[in-house]
Amino acid sequence: MWAWVYSPDRLPRAYVKWIKSAAAVDERLVIALRRVRYGEIKYGVETGQAHVLQGMCKDYNLPMDYGDPVKSIPFPCEIVHMGTGISCEFHAVSRMFRSFMWAFSTYLPLNLALSLRSPSIRSFLRALKSSFRSSAFLGSFITLFYYGICLARTRIGPRIFGRSASKCQQMDGGTCIASGCSLCGWSILLENGGRRQDISLFVAPRAMATLLPRRYLMEHQWRETLAFAMSTAVVFTCVSERPERVRGVLGKVLHSVLASR
User: Fold this and answer.
1) Which of 12, 36, 165, 220 could, after both became Cys, cross-link 43 (CB 3.0–4.6 A)?
2) pTM strictly above 0.85
3) How many CB atoms lie within 10 A of CB 50?
């Protein structure tokens, strides 16, 4: 999530697009957060960037001064709430509901389609339960991320750091996003153990890619080749010796191929 806000180029394009769809955030708000972090927007200083959030203020029927970093230190959380009112808690609840319904409308058809392989009341209930659990996880993830931002910049942050322009700059320049990132990950506890492993294996490479270069120079290409060869050897060995350790469709396909040989 940190990379999505500040360094989206470090993530796969499809991943960035999916997060943007799930987050349902106004792109101007993300742009403003980036500019605060990199000093293009400074509280108490006229830098000619007020138009970024004032456009949001106009669209969401908020006072134009809310988007002016000279007059509003810090920007009111109503801008972050994007039309849901002044309460951070109400915004969190509304986020939970909207995110849950968005995820449920995605997960339920997929799980129902999988249950058609052996249709029964039990498989239908299992699909419903799985969809509900995964939707609650994703809804909580998004909700905790947004509420973590509000906690840092409105609820807790000002009581600890104060409300000076420099401290507000610090909070909106990274502290609030770090707070959201530190909270949202705990939503994984809503998933069962197997799904936690699947999600971890899916997310870990993308997290590593934010720290390591996505492309190597030709003279360093051997590093990627070596890593791929070693990981492939581990997977093939597990499929051959302990096939139950490689789950899912990939495990079944590899087992059928290697076993037939």
Assistant:
1) 165
2) no
3) 19
